[in-house]
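Could you please consider the sequence and fold appended to this message?
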Amino acid sequence: MVLFNKILASRWLLGALLIAFTVSGFGIALVLGEDPGFGLSVWNDMANGGPFNQLAIPSPMDITQNKELFLTWWSPGQYAIPGVLSYVLGISISTASIWVTLLFSVVGLVGWYFVYQKLGFDELTIGLCLFLITTSRLFTINFLNYTGGELLLFGSQSWTIWYYLHYRSAPFKLFFGLLLLSLASFFLKSAYTIGFAALGGCAGLAFLSDLAKTRKLLTPSLVTVLVVGLCIVCYLGITQFGFVALGTSPITSTSQPFKIVWASFETLTYPLTHWFSIAEIYPQLLQRISFPFWGHWLYYGLLFVGFLGMIQLVLGTRYRLARELFVGFYVVYCGVFLLLYNKGADISIEYRHTKVVAYLFLPLLVSTLQKHSATNYQKTILGLLLVLNTGYGLSTFVVKKLEITRESATGTSGFALRHTTDEDLAFIHSVDKPENILYFTSGSMNVDATRARKLVGSIDYKFARGCGFIFDKYEGKAGKIYAFVHEAYEQLPTNPSLNAQFPSYTFRLVKTTKKFKIYEGH
């Protein structure tokens, strides 16, 4: 068992996995995700002389004119880093994205190594944790899809945590270094703001712990709280007024009154269920088989038992600093996302949003399961962990790679565009003319259009409207409109018809492909 653990913890094994993942990206192109598809729209406009971080879209007041949209739902790093690398090296942006994926994956893993080391875990536990991260579904997916900010933040956030742990007793270094690292992380993914708030929560918990022990208010931990608090204030001032206020964000989309969404409370168990892939396997089972009623109760029962086990494990650990760090992140992340979900923000309930909390919980879990005094029950759980995390992560990686070859076509930027055929792309290229307007209900397809004016929407119209990309009605007349409507878009009754959005146009169906209907508007 110890030898087996050492093999899994080997750095050579991690290196071999990363090389295999990377090489696969050259053989089968990375899929361009929907979110980065919006960002690359901006990059295309900037590459053609447009202003920084702005997308030119037809104005709803007069469709012959343009409206400049400042992109704030996603920060610039997701398109700027591969875009600049592509320009400097003279390679395609998809090839640049493969190298960016490898770079930020390695940097992130090294960062977590130093975090775990700082928390006092032994080399074997750290090695097992890095192996489980590398073979998890949320890591391997980065080598299937270019995930943009998700990937980039993985590479930076662990370093902000390490920096906080390392310099929390050095006020000046902590303030300036943490502020710079946090601003860089915001550039990579704006949702890092929640992570910064979590660091503040950790500092607050450490202060309260010291206060309870010493009964003294003036302690070094109080200085740390004040420094981190001042750092957060400066960070918010720069990011909110210098970036977020220029557009819309998920926070500003929470226009509904507070209403409890019971499914959102699965978030509380994600730090544990992330590693057993339960939250992903369950909905896939629902789609593929007739799930018996008792199966749903079994699933929620497992979540409840897992939640209790997670709490017990955290309370019983001997790694005090690791516990404080986990609790600080857990309270802030789960609290923020439960609030957003139940306020109707236009974001999905997914465990990728709280994966940093899972990374902080992982060494607590592994150190408990693989210790020499572990019971047969604990060894069984460790076996399940390897099967459901590693087995599921690697097998789905292979299956999805094969799926990409069947369901995607490679665009001019080198990305695989899901649910698209070569015939679809050829039609886009034939109508990609300056006098036309191209309207996409699937965000990633738009990157193959570079000359026509574009409207970049989403299958979920409400989401696209909340981002500011799409409007309910467009006045006036311009050139022809070509609308690429995904079949899933038409299946949502709340999505408006083309005639309702463009009352001055008459639309006719000109082409039907595997997943799209293409309409021409005069």
